[in-house]
TrEMBL record:
Bilayer disposition of the protein: Multi-pass membrane protein
Entries under PANTHER family matching the protein: ABC TRANSPORTER PERMEASE, ABC TRANSPORTER PERMEASE PROTEIN NATB
InterPro entries: ABC2_TM
GO MF entries: ABC-type transporter activity
Protein name: ABC-2 type transport system permease protein
Species annotation: Proteiniclasticum ruminis
Keyword Membrane: yes
Subcellular location: Membrane
Amino acid sequence: MKNLMTVFQFEFRGLLKKKSFVITTLIVCLLALIGTSVPTIMKAFEGEDTPVEEPGEDLGTLGIVIENSALEEDVLKERLPGFTLEFFNSREDLQEKVLDGTMDSGYIVTSPSSYTAVVKNVSMFTGGDFLFDEVLRSYNEDLALEKEGYNPSEVKEILQGISIERAEEVLGKDSQNNYYVVYALIIVLFMIVMFYGNNVATLVAREKSDRTMEILVTSTHPNSLIIGKVLASGLAGILQAGLIALSLFGGYLLNRGNYSPEIQEFLKLSIDPKLLLVFLFFGTTGYFLLLFLYASIGALVSKVEDVPSATTLVTMFSMAAYFISLFTLNFPESLVLKVASYVPFTSFMAMFVRYAINSISYLELALSYGILLGTTAAIALLSVKIYRYGTLNYGNSGNTIKLIRTALKESKEA
């Protein structure tokens, strides 16, 4: 293992000097800076805001048909401020205007407490027409109060004077505050696992394909080669993700003065340092676990073209962890999440999610990380044996699990 640092430095420098790494990093960082600078760019093109006299708020145009004199037109005009109302004599005229888009929507009032909404299309997410419901409900409430001898205005003034004070004491975790942070970190972790996992598998397979591996093993121990390659690829991925994150944060700091109050309020997320610590420990360990698997499988194949199909099983592990983590973000007590938080191939994401949205003991956290760390060490040793086998065997093809079994069997016999 004395050559480990030499291999690591050589591979790491090689990755940093690659045009694909440099160009990709520069482009993504530039896009991050541009994306966070959009409000500033828009303000520069729009120029200084000049105060103008704002007309009355126009919320849209509504078509109305009142049948059998069910309501007075003035009632609707009074209770729908901000809307432009156009009254029609027949349903057919209203339907024609809604169809050609002249009217945003239409209403056929059949009685003081019933109506038919006329719309052109109804999408899957179209909700009920609560606006017109409220108009007719308010009107009928006023009629009922007047009938009983009450003044509707006085009653409403009394009711509006009632206020409720609400305070919240969170005994466990505030998952709402962590939701978007966790969501973003899961996506970032998944992306670097997929990209650098395939990258290290392709790198090892290419060295074997062009016989470079045969030269390397004569001067350097196979253990140092595979561990050095994995550490170099892993660190390169972490570095690239860190540079992109710094670009996003720097762009935000430079342009935050031009962000709207709503966006600034949204971005005021208080990140728990303990949450980031859990992410770093679990994410980094699981990341290297999968990189070792990718590297060992890359050593088994003889052609670079076989890498995608050979690494399908490892890719499925990554995708399982990703989808389980995302789909259970809103279900803190999910049994699937609990089980996945102890399975080493999914716990590096699942336990992080579970810690963020639920209250778990340090014992559970330590147990999960212990299993993950132990599995990572075992996979690293396994990958070393597979790499040794791969350096001396060419023409390997077929089922990945069978190749791994053969590699382990021959390493024992050796």
